[in-house]
Amino acid sequence: MNLKIKFLIIIITLSILFINGCIEEEKINDKYDIYVGSNIDNGYSTIQKAINNASNQDSIYVYNGIYNETIKINKSINLITENNDKTIIDYKGNKTEEIAIITITSDNCTINGIRINNLNKNIKLTGILIKSSNNTIINNTITNTDKGIFIESDYNTNYLNNTILFNNLINNSYGLHIIYSPNNNISYNKIKFSKEYGIYLLSSDTNTLSNNTFSENNYGLRIKGARDNKLFNNNILLNQKGLYFCCGARNNIVYNNNFQENNIWHANDALGNQWDNGIIGNYWDDYEKKYPNSEIMNGLWETPYNITGGSYTDNFPLINPI
Q: Which residues are CB-neighbours of 157 under 8 A, at least 6 positions away?
């Protein structure tokens, strides 16, 4: 399915769910294929047992509770929870090697509404590791991991067309790490308190990052060796450093974003990326301080905004935040 069409279907579905006051229960004919919970009839006590007994295209419904387990998904399934605040995976293990709470190796999976907490901060833990394509990761909360969500491709194998939507990635080293993975849609996520990067996009082209909030991270975003990505309608605020293009990142386009109260710089680019779409640029909260004599022309600031690190400019800076 075309990625834009897939994303449009998801947005329409979410709108209907919000109107009905229920985002966490995406039922099909009021019945799921498999149920998970404690003390239930005709179900399983662990998520992994349910997956082991599932078939492709099955929908697994997980009741509220705390599940102390790691999960491997090797089938095309939908994993849907009762409530994304009360369906929790707490990891208490003491393994020293780097592991993932949830690993997805099959295409066309959905994970909707799980809260993942790492209770052992002495290990490098990934919340959701994706090694496949066409998955939807929606409405989850991941805290205290090394990498909240990690799409891990390599030079020879690209996993693509994943949708990362409406997630809260809080207090991780990397909120979202993407390597060699094109055509993903990263939208409506809240990524904050990342010790290293809110998003680290490495050698991954033609991704769309829109309507996200990156706040109080070390770097809001680092984009390295990646091309032709689109970044629009994002809030990049209160980070130490905002958006950083480095190491061969070229031909990316950045427009209609808010850059506010980032401590060291809002953006840094010495490579050749585009900071407006030819009609509108971005909002910079230090614009008037930098250009006190600039005038308004056609509803935009007249003087281009210079991007830290090189000679590139936002030619159509916005007067007000979006």
A: 180
Domain 146-314 has CATH 2.160.20.10: yes
Residue 11, pLDDT above cutoff 60: no
Give me 198's structure tokens. 């809110």
Quote the radius of gyration of the chain (alpha carbons, Å).
Answer: 21
Furthest CA-CA distance within the chain? 72
Give tens-digit pLDDT for 232-281.
999 999 999 999 999 999 999 999 999 999 999 999 999 889 999 999 99
Q: Where are the domains of the chain?
A: 146-314
Q: How far apart are the first and last CA of the chain?
A: 31
Mean pLDDT to the nearest integer, 187-207: 98
Q: What is the rounded CA–CA span in Å between residue 164 and residue 183?
A: 12
How far does Cα 125 stand from its chain's mean position?
A: 17
pTM of the full predicted structure? 0.89
